[in-house]
Amino acid sequence: MLRTQSLQFSYQDSKNETLSFPDITIGPKQGLLILGPSGVGKTTLLHLLAGLLPAQSGDIFVANTHLNTLSRKQLDKFRGQHIGLIFQRSYFIKSLSLIENLSLRERISKTKNDRYRKEQLIMQLGLSDLQNKKVYELSEGQQQRLSIALGVIHKPKILLADEPTSNLDDVNCEKVISLLKKEAEICKSNLVIITHDQRVKSHFDNHIIL
Amino acid sequence: MLSISLATCILQIKNQLNQHLEINIKPFDMVIGAKGSPLQLVLSSVLHIDNPTGNILLKDALKISKNPMVKEVIPVSYGDNYKGYRILGTYDTYLKQYEAKLHEGKLFEKSFEVVLGSYAAQKLNLQLGSTLVSAHGLADNTLETHDEKPFTVVGILEPTGSVIDHLIITNLESIWEVHEHGDEKEHLEEHTEEHDDHEKHENEHDEEHDHHEQHEDEREITSLLVKFRNPLATLQLSRYINEQTSMQAALPKFEIERLMEFLGIGFQAINSIALIILIVAGLSIFINLIKTVRERKQELALLRTYGASSIQLLQLVFFEALFLSVFGFLLGWLLGRFGAWLLSFFTQDLYGYSFEFSLPDNRELLILFLVTLTTFLAAIIASLSIFKLNVSKTISNA
């Protein structure tokens, strides 16, 4: 469940330019593709949805929670428990192993340490043999799959992915999209993908073009 | 870390040195000896590291003991060594002053019976019943030995941590008797340089004969250790001795304080170097923490997207700071102890000051406190940027 209403945002350093976003409404388990060329504020929208940026005006409801009314700390907590983020580039804690990154994610978001869930997840993503490797030892494809794992480990209500396919060839693009869809389905979460990549279009019924 | 080890090492050495000096000089309020440098007198007669100033007549010295303010006098006489360890002739009350207890055997009762300090016994590898032949002078030499009068070990003392551990102790008479021979031999050698062996032997016999008739009154001692009933007497009596007699009186406490003042400049210099290093170390910790926060901006931002609050990130940085300072202190402290321990090998052989391992004292804990404080200050400043961390920007502009 995700709903936005007359969302507006402007960066402090560009005073004149205010980004206005179309209203979004998606029901349970629905997916959404937000398409648009570079520089129209796709990532900004994603960060607004994740509560990483405060909206200037307008309302965001994620799973019936009004994000605008939450305090900074509540927002952190809410994000940790109910929002999964997958970034354009993979970010990890470099000094930790694959499995430790996942455990850390669980600990910080205060979701329970579920070994079965972790094993299941890395099996689905084909990372089982690599769980004790340090993240910098992984290939790019493996890193991307780990990003997905980190995005869904806590079974978020909404999974936000920022350009998950931009650096991938067609074959891998297909794989990643189907993985994302599969995981979202397992977690019963809304999958929101933001991209300029036209290849993804065919996989989603719901489109918004910025 | 290095600065901590340096600082604790210096502190440790200084403390141990002070402690040893304190133990060694504590039993005696005043030393009376021949005229000369008072510091030398104290160093030689109390700490046993310098050469004596000369001898004084026992009967002159004992006059002092008649003064009602004097609680106890202990004459000491020395001038010989065995393999570099000093042989000290004195009363058995000397041992009581240092609270020395016998580890085995008995105290000396007759002449030429000796009691060994624990360290000396161990180093010289002597047991009860062993005999040793003293050599003239205070430094190890095998040229002028008193072969004809060997000493027998009758007792070995328990370690006291004081100067006694390094001494070979006997009664006064033994020293006199050996010395008669020593003197005579020296005397002899001077006179007989041009003579042949035969004449030398004749000469020796004559002189030996003379010496046996030496009068009790001419007995000499090196110095007299004095303990007062009343500390007020110290100044009064020392002035009297210095002005009215041919002897001099030195106050160990005063002289050692003077010595520490000289040494103090050295210690101060090292201390200030350590302090400067400490400050530099603090700065580097500070810079490191800021660097860490900056370098790991992305990781910190990532943790925020995982739902960590700013406070949690702050805790992270503070834990790191705490870990750095405590771990650094521990390592540095251990290294400092190790350094002091290494140095103690030299001091043990040279001055008889052994090193004892001790837990951190108050001043070292103060260093720990200061280090932790510095690191925390650094952490506070470094963590200011955590509150300003723009997660969105950091994540999107990799």
From TrEMBL, chain A:
Gene Ontology molecular function terms on file: ATP binding; ATP hydrolysis activity; transmembrane transporter activity
Stored InterPro entries: AAA+_ATPase, ABC_transporter-like_ATP-bd, ABC_transpr_LolD-like, P-loop_NTPase
Entries under PROSITE patterns matching the protein: ABC_TRANSPORTER_2
Entry keyword set: ATP-binding, Nucleotide-binding
Annotated Gene Ontology cellular component terms: plasma membrane
Pfam families linked: ABC_tran
Protein's recorded name: Putative ABC transport system ATP-binding protein
Domain (ABC transporter) ranges: 2-210
PANTHER family the UniProt entry points to: ATP-BINDING COMPONENT OF ABC TRANSPORTER-RELATED, IMPORT ATP-BINDING PROTEIN
Organism: Aquimarina spongiae
Keyword rRNA-binding assigned: no
Lineage: Bacteria, Pseudomonadati, Bacteroidota, Flavobacteriia, Flavobacteriales
SUPFAM superfamilies recorded: P-loop containing nucleoside triphosphate hydrolases (SSF52540)
TrEMBL record, chain B:
Domain ABC3 transporter permease C-terminal: 272-390
Record keywords, A-Z: Cell membrane, Membrane, Transmembrane, Transmembrane helix
Region (Disordered): 182-217
Residue span, MacB-like periplasmic core domain: 58-174
Annotated Pfam families: FtsX, MacB_PCD
Membrane topology, from the record: Multi-pass membrane protein
One GO CC term, this protein: plasma membrane
Membrane-crossing segments per the record: 269-290, 311-335, 365-387
Subcellular location: Cell membrane
Name this polypeptide is given: Putative ABC transport system permease protein
Annotated organism of origin: Aquimarina spongiae
